[in-house]
């Protein structure tokens, strides 16, 4: 089991989650973060910290797509352990549906 970052992180990317992770297993893309499923110790600490409610346990049904996105992107995106400024328009995109289809980018972020 692991926790995964899902759709609503895209273009919100508040980064509150990275500060609390005891094993630093968040990785940064251009407009979202992912969790490395092999490094996550399933502690659940990050889940309530996410203002966008984008972090879910993969024990929840229907998250197969997101488990794959997290596993795939964590291999190529840089590690991030410190919170930075979120995008200036993050609030406008919070709760928008279908963000993966419209805005997902496989480009890496800057990392720490
Ligand atoms: S706190 Fe939530 S929205 Fe922000 S980067 Fe982490 S998972 Fe994404
Ligand atoms: S569940 Fe724990 S180990 Fe996994 S990403 Fe969240 S804070 Fe890190």
UniProtKB/TrEMBL annotation:
Known role: Ferredoxins are iron-sulfur proteins that transfer electrons in a wide variety of metabolic reactions.
InterPro entries: 4Fe4S_Fe-S-bd, 4Fe4S_Fe_S_CS, 7Fe_ferredoxin, Fd_C, FdxA, RnfB_subfamily
Coiled coil location: none
Assigned keywords, A-Z: 3Fe-4S, 4Fe-4S, Electron transport, Iron, Iron-sulfur, Metal-binding, Repeat, Transport
Pfam families named among the record's database cross-references: DUF3470, Fer4
Requisite cofactors: [4Fe-4S] cluster; [3Fe-4S] cluster
Annotated ranges, domain 4Fe-4S ferredoxin-type: 1-30, 31-60
The protein's name: Ferredoxin
